[in-house]
Backbone:
């Protein structure tokens, strides 16, 4: 996940990596439906266990339309990560334009109930030959 369209951010020891790819088999450009899948990898680089509680995304399309998405956990889970552990998941984002950006944060709590926000740096959803998943 080291492409310039991706992001790699560390907040209070929590490393969040993000990468997106275009999914043409699920998209319909003529109707303004562009589907991107994205992969998130979170690694606990801290010295105590933490649990993911909530997420918040800011999605901006090529027309500047902004959408905020909030919710509990990710893909129906609220993983607990011991020091050194990694959790990875894949999800998708529909856009009305052929490119856009995502950024956000995950709210974690430690075993003492102290919370912190781990930033997800801006990453790009762009149609490009190296960014297409064919099915």
Residues:
């Amino acid at each position: 996940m080291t492409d310039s369209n991706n992001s790699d951010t560390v907040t209070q020891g929590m490393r969040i990596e993000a990468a997106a790819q275009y999914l043409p088999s699920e998209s319909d450009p003529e109707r303004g439906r562009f589907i991107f899948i994205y992969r998130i990898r979170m690694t606990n680089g801290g010295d105590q266990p933490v649990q993911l509680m909530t997420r918040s995304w800011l999605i901006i399309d090529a027309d500047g339309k902004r959408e905020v998405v909030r919710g509990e956990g990710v893909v129906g889970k609220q993983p607990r990560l011991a020091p050194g552990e990694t959790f990875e998941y894949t999800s998708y984002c529909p856009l009305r334009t052929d490119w856009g950006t995502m950024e956000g944060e995950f709210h974690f709590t430690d075993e003492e109930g102290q919370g912190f926000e781990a930033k997800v740096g801006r990453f790009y959803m762009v149609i490009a030959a190296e960014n297409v998943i064919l099915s």
